[in-house]
# Entry
Amino acid sequence: MLVACSDWDDHYEADSSILSSQQSTLWENISSNGQLSQFAALLKKTGYDQVLSATQTYTVWAPQNGSFDYDALSSMSDARVQREFVMNHIARNNYPASGTVDERVYTLNEKLMFFDGSMPYAIQGVGLSQPNISSRNGTLHMLDGKIPFRANIYESLNNNEYPLDSISEFFHSYDVKKLNEQKSVQGPMLDGEITYLDSVFDEHNDLFTRFAAFIQREDSNYTMIMPTNEAWHKARQQVQKYFHYIPTFEFMENTSTGSDQKKEKVTIKDVKYLQDSIVNGMLLNDLFYNNNLYDNRKLNNLQTGQPLQVDSLYSTTLSKIYSDDARRLLEGAQRVDKSNGIIWLTDSLRMRSWTTWNPEIIIQGENTQTLASSVNVAGTPERIYVAPGTQNPAVPGHISMNSYVEVQPISASTNPGVVFYLPGVRSTTYSLYLVMVPANIVSSLREVKPYKFSVTMGCVDETGTNQDRLRDWVAESNFVSDTARVDTIYLGDFTFPMAYEGTGNYYPYLRVNSTISSRERNDYDRTMRIDCLILRPKELDDFLKEHPDYKYDDGDF
# Structure
């Protein structure tokens, strides 16, 4: 009987100990454990003592004293300790260590962890020193060390390890946090308002959508070229020259008939803010790449110092960057792996200006949105579609988008004219080309005569005054097309004093007027057929003359 009673007492004391743990909250079990005092202090520093005292169920993997750098963590900001350490060791729901474990666990900071093993157990390779301390609101496991925090690309936009505060400051200026009430743990009512012990916020940033780069998502796989402060400031100086704005300028609206115009005075409220926003946005434009698409997949295995060998890369903004330019992007950069992809740290952004912030602009003749007005035209200029395979083989050349606009005169003795708006123009010099289509483009039976025409420009000068019908920038007053081909005619170089990109629906414009005299009516065709107008940055035009085999993204031209 005495032996039996002793056994019963021992059994009762063991169960009593277990029951004591089960009756206590996670916080009570952590704070009463002398081996977890450092972890407990950091929980209290970030307010998670209250979270782990609530009724919601959690699993906590708690590193023992001395198994992590407590002093370094204590010196960090509360927000950083919370996200990179505390939330990295807590998950919702119960994850006991029993039998064979093979679990994919998302911690409170949404990091994917692998909890696995069978006596012993580990999470992300860190061993459990004491598993399964049952608590009233979950399970506590003690660890031999801390779980490594792996930042994603978005979280790496900081100045913690590298000098990245320039790009980080701009990117985070668009941050918005919204309380997720379903995931948050409610606390007591205070003055009629709900309080939260564990506030879970959904992070949103308009730049994610603008650049189609959701670098905050853990289930994504991106590459980001990340410029250091040196690279950012150096590139800004280069890009700013393309975006010079005049605070007050005139805009000439061409009416549908072209016979009269409306002049409007436009004021930019904050020129510096507009320029900074545009320039910073342009710097980000081709920094993001989806590693799961196209030849971008080769970025997954590319290591520091290796040359990139691809046909082309597609940025998330769908810029197509061919092999030579793609290889330049990562030269001299350092690869750093992140939880949802790769960043490449660079001290110099090696984009060519025309691939990113000063692209070639192609104005399609058949686009009604850029066709501002027409004069002496028989009805509305007509959009003509040339189906693939129907182009007359005797007419060499390519028609962009397989379409052109046909501008017919109102009578046999009048000269038609059209005005094209030029959206997206930067404050830079362009080489202008007009692409004309001969009349026999689909049939050899059509009579073919050349076009004779003049061009004039309408834009503001350095003072913001709109100058209409500028002629002195062209080398010739009359151009004549080649009837033997789809003819790309060089019009001349023109420098725009002001950038129109970002100002809204305000554009410079180009007039194309037929200039056939009555004596020449049998020699030229008054009906003009215009494929497109090309505004090629002068620096690209010069580069192409020196490198005729150079490939770049020229749309469908």
